[in-house]
Amino acid sequence: MDYTSPPPKARLDWVDTARGLAIVLVVFGHCWRGLVQAGIVTNQFLIRHVDDFIYMFHMNAFFVLAGCFLTRHVQKASASGFVWRQVARLLYPMVLWTYVFIGLRILAGDSTNSQSGLSDLWTSPLPPLEHMWFLWALFIGMTLLGLLMKLFPALTTHKRIWYAIALAGLVFWAVVDIPLPLIPWLGETMRYTPFLAFGVALGLSTKWMSGRYPLPMVSLIVFLVLGFAAGYLPIKSLSHGTASAVMTVVFLQMAQWLSHWWSGKTLGNVLQQLGRMTMAIFLAHTIFSAATRIVLLKFGVNDPIVHLTLGTATGVIGPTVMYHFAQRLNLSRILGF
Question: Which of 59, 220, 246, 263 is deepest in the core (most CB within 10 A)?
Fold first, then answer.
């Protein structure tokens, strides 16, 4: 059994591929939800199954991937240095872009699905606004598990303990009722931190981190079956958590396989580039997707396929352009990228 981290490398291609695939699904998922909220998509069967299918694995994947590298981050910094890194990389952009979104909503007026007024500028960034829950949940999870490693250094080498922590977290999420006032603050953290711990365990496997895990055909069949069943599983249940974990692993195995299959090819390079810009795309994509929806509606376009295609494309391309401009102007850190 291998309980050592793989040798450090500047970047792992399969990880960037996985992040690229996942962030495209994030953009698609938010575009889809925006169309549902705007009444453009009305088919209840599709609304239920498309949304449930995507959310069974794509956000989990980000937590698992973050967990894969958590041990290294903890080992490279002091406890205070580690925490401040999480503040700078996760809390700062969450706070900054919360007010960016509020400001843009005020300017957009009643064209958006959710309106804001000048009084909303005094809104606290906590509990997090809309998709900013991800940064808040990741901050709490990374900080708690990182400090746990600092308190018990032996945890940085014991894979089985992290599998046990992940399983205990899934059970806790499934059986413990969160007090209603705490749900906006801790609900998503409790739901996704087990996947962060799961990622720590996987990160301690040289074979997994090498990106050469086998992808049997049966795994793809299981992935599709569980994805369809997602709409019938209670979200707050061990069955849902287990199915999500299985789908997440298969998704990451697919990313590993595609990374090798597309190595050196245009599509593979594009996905890896997107994987390196996930923070910028995550923070800004809804601005471009929502703007696209507003413009199309102004011109009388109501076709869901057109909205999904253009909304997803602009939600990816717009932040990508913004990222490159920020890089040229040395504004990446200021913008939280």
Answer: 59
Residues 6+ apart with CB under 8 A from 240: 174, 230, 233, 234
Cα distance from N-terminal residue to C-terminal residue, the chain: 38
Q: What is the pLDDT along the chain (337 residues), one digit of tens a residue?
A: 333 344 444 578 999 999 999 999 999 999 999 999 889 999 988 988 999 999 999 999 999 999 999 999 999 999 999 999 999 999 999 999 999 999 888 887 776 656 666 777 888 999 999 899 999 999 999 999 999 999 999 999 999 999 999 999 999 999 999 999 999 999 999 999 999 999 999 999 999 999 888 888 889 999 999 999 998 999 999 999 999 999 999 999 999 999 999 988 999 999 999 999 999 999 999 999 999 999 999 999 999 999 999 999 999 999 999 999 999 999 999 999 9
Q: Which residues contact 11 (CB under 8 A, 6 or more apart)?
A: 276
Range 1-7, long-range pairs (CB < 8 A, 24+ positions): 1/159, 2/204, 2/205, 2/206, 2/207, 3/157, 3/158, 3/159, 3/204, 4/157, 4/204, 4/206, 5/71, 5/72, 5/203, 5/204, 5/206, 5/209, 6/206, 6/209, 6/210
Residues 6+ apart with CB under 8 A from 7: none
Are 307 and 31 in contact by the 8 Å Cβ rule? The answer is yes
